[in-house]
Amino acid sequence: MKIAVIGAGLAGCEAVNLLIKNNFSVDLFEMKPKKLSPAHKLPTFAELVCSNSLKTTRDTHPQGMLKYELLKLNSVILSKAQLAKVPSGDALAVDRVLLSKLVTDEIMKMKNLRIINKEVEELPQGYDYYIIATGPLTSESLSEYLASELLGSESLYFYDAIAPIIDAESIDMSRTFFGSRYDKGGDDYLNIPLTKEEYLKFIDALRSAEKVPLRSFEKPRYYEGCLPVEVLAERGIDTLAYGPMKPVGFDERKIGFKPYAVVQLRREDKEGTAYNLVGFQTKLTIKEQERIFRSLRGLERAVFLRYGSIHRNTFIDAPKHLNITLNLKGRENIYFAGQITGVEGYVESIATGLLSALFLIFRIKNISPVIPSARTALGALLSHTQREITPYQPSGLHLGLFLKEDVPKKLKEERILENERKDFDIFSEEIKNFISF
């Protein structure tokens, strides 16, 4: 039995972990460190490219439910994330270098695993099963192969932007303050308060700034959950003030005045040597990033450890091409996992990595797959890959994907959580009869 997992990102590593735990031999193909995508910087596995946040851990939030379920199933990525976390209120944010190292060390010591460092341009021959987990930054050659040889149509795409990271020593802390909105997490964030005059000047600068141009054949299909800061500024004067720069939930006595907007910075590492600008993903030119972001109080001498950037993300039309078990219609030995399936977000990618391996194991054992109900976070996420919407667009997990009862609004979150826990317990008990976690 020969299994190839292509891609050692979050989804690929999660899939490998479950397959190895169930005594299968796996060949893991990864082009790093021989070749890096334009957005990757580390030679190691499971690299977080955009934000270092894996979002909220609140029980009643879909993201909290998904984390709960994955941890119950012994997710290798989330277990390592607990060891690499940095202060971030009720969110799970991590030191991304440490997380990548911890996951890589865990994967590298696994038995029955062969790691092949090469770029995959087409499916390698001689394997019985494949899990394609090459992520949203799938190489151009493999993307072309998938579109022409497997999917019979052009791959879809959207654009994803990355926020800048700033050296902590270059920030004038005397002009900022520590705190979290509504004290969720205490002093986890570094904050820059803005007066109305400062805010409006900042918006004007964003609107008139020079952007990195798209190539002639590219159309800007942005994911709504990760819009560039300058695109948000163009949507309205107060769009940012009601979005990532909302000034609510802070103790004005700490600030000395009532801010019109607040810029938040979040730690990038455990030591607090670097901070990223929360919600400031951007396609501004490097020169404009330096000019505009250094106009913010406290960042006048900011040293940029990483500039914001924009890159093309590839994903497939999952409802058209994939079964709910994440394998290819008509070629059921080929599975997909991660953001290439059209799910959006780190934890969602981890989840599809685990699910693809789970469904593959069921197939190899000739057992009817157990599908989690859409009242669970895993089942709700799977339901997105089957949503026949035109055009199909990436989505993170949200309450709209859950199967819900018609209950009063004030009971809705409580009832969704109650049903999620109940149905997940049923699902986990059933699969543990066949799968080792």
What spatial form do the alpha-carbon principal axes imply? globular
Number of helices: 13
Distance between the termini: 20 Å
Largest β sheet strand count, sense and barrel closure: 6 strands, mixed
Can you list the strand order of the major beta sheet? 6-2-1-7-17-16
Structurally, the number of domains stands at: 2
Percent in strands:
15-25%
Q: What's the level 1 CATH class of the largest domain?
A: Alpha Beta
CATH homologous superfamily identity of the largest domain:
FAD/NAD(P)-binding domain
How much is the radius of gyration in Å?
22 Å
Q: Give the name of the CATH architecture of the largest domain.
A: 3-Layer(bba) Sandwich
Which structural class is indicated by helix and strand composition?
A: alpha+beta
Low-confidence stretches: none
The strand count comes to: 17
CATH topology of the largest domain: FAD/NAD(P)-binding domain
Work out the helicity level.
25-40%
Keywords for this structure?
globular, Elongation Factor Tu (Ef-tu), domain 3, six-stranded antiparallel β-sheet, 32% helix, FAD/NAD(P)-binding domain, alpha+beta, 437 residues, 2 domains, 17 strands
